[in-house]
Amino acid sequence: MRSGPVTGDTGDAPGRAGGGARTPPAEPDHQVLTSLLGAWALSACSAEETAAVEAHLTVCPRCDREARRLRDAVGLLHTDGSLDLDPMLRSRVLEGCLGRRPARIPVPLWASPYDAETARLDALLRDFGDAEWHAPLRLKWFDGERQTDRRTTVAGVIAHLLAVDGLVSAALGLDDPLGGDGGALSPAERTETYWAATGRPVTRAVREPWREQSHTLVRTVSFAGRGVGELSVAYGDFALPLQDALLERAFECWVHGGDVAAAVDYPYGTPAAPHLHRMIDLAARLLPATLAGRRRSGLAAPARGLVTAGSPGRSLHLEIEGKGGGDWYIALDSPAAVGSADHTVAQVALDGTEFCRLVAGHVPPVEAAAGQEGDREAISDVLFAAASLSRL
Predict the structure, then answer these.
(1) Distance separating alpha carbons of residues 220 and 205, to the nearest angstrom
(2) H or E stretch including 262?
(3) Residue 140: beta bridge partners?
(4) Which of the two ends of the chain, N or C, has the fewest CB atoms closer than 10 A to its terminal CB?
(5) Is residue 89 part of a domain?
(6) What residues of the chain score a pLDDT lower than 70?
(7) Which SS3 state, helix, strand or coil, does residue 323 take?
(8) Mind listing the pLDDT tens digit for each residue in 305-349?
(9) Does 392 reside within a domain?
(10) What is the predicted pLDDT for the residue at 75?
């Protein structure tokens, strides 16, 4: 969260007696400019910060000497590697800073993945030219029985994120990018409506409202206090608590960040392990209800026996390996049942990233599992349910 300096107007207003001139904005003080020297030496300052630092160096010999020393040190760095900033740099710096001095108004733990993933994607987008913004790509998802896709561009992907993030904005009483027309629309309908409303190919101009919206969401939930995480966010035919909705938005931001990076041949890593674990946990918690929905549509095998609410029933052991991994027990016969290790009839082992690719609809269910054991029908039903969590 950033806020610029606010300066008062000590002069007389135009037209009043005296007609005094307005006082120009105060320049940053010496301490602020000194703290920017390291970033200036690395060419990491904004244009405004660069101008202020360089103007200061002409009148402050001590800072000028320090700036020259830092620039010389930068020149000793190896230049045979990539000069692009690590997309995870912001997250690591914030983690280190907050470890030494917690924020006065900290971002809630459940909102941290969204904050981190929107920042990572924004770091990727920052230096894109028009060619990158209009690079073609295909958004992929699983429509219940088969994979499908939709052609768009990098700018179109950011417009998609903006439109669907608007569901969370509306739930918080903030501005919705679709105005009053998007309240009852599903995420896919919101996206198509927003794309159609532009009347032309989406351009790089979409980055600013998307990033401003994400900043506003994080700032709002940080100041809202306890209880806001339970606020319901409507997705058309279902709803999620706000804390799960922001986690779902973080997951989609990461997935589409990977789509964007692939479209411009740029590497893009996975989320931090704690964030990835929370994303996997959300998908695992949604699986029983998704499986029940597929069963009602005739796309999954019938339940075997009645299970009372809160009692253990047949379960599938989902073992996620690697970064963000863990063990989950998926209730097979009712979303009201409790998954239990004592009632396991099948086991599936998957790498964490591969499981997320399955949930995103990027991997066919029949190709997903690295290890399978037990009831083959239950395994197939759960893998297809996982893919069915994806959507446009």
Answers:
(1) 24
(2) helix 242-263
(3) 149
(4) N
(5) no
(6) 1-27, 77-88, 90-91, 94-95, 97-104, 181-183
(7) coil
(8) 777 888 888 999 999 999 999 999 999 999 999 999 999 999 999
(9) no
(10) 74
Same domain for 280 and 350, yes or no, is: yes
Predicted TM-score (pTM) of the model is 0.74
- Same-domain check for residues 163 and 253: yes
**Cα–Cα separations (whole angstroms), residue 115 to 48, 260, 381:** 25, 18, 33
User: Closest Cα to residue 385, out of 313, 316, 292, 307?
Assistant: 292
Question: CA separation (Å) from 184 to 69, 190, 193, 240?
Answer: 59, 9, 12, 15
Asked whether the beta carbons of 332 and 307 are under 8 A apart, the reply is no
Q: What is the pLDDT of residue 230?
A: 94
Tell how strand 326-331 and strand 147-153 pair up.
Answer: unpaired
| Cα–Cα nearest to 360, from 59, 208, 152, 141 | 141
180 DSSP assignment: G
Phi-psi region of 149 (alpha: psi -120 to 50; beta: other; left: phi over 0): beta
Of the candidates 333, 345, 346, 355, the one whose C-alpha atom is nearest the C-alpha of residue 288 is 333
- Domain final residue, candidates 228, 263, 298: 263
Asked whether 248 and 110 are in contact (CB, 8 A), the reply is: no
Q: State pLDDT tens for residues 212-221.
A: 999 999 999 9
Same domain for 240 and 373 = no
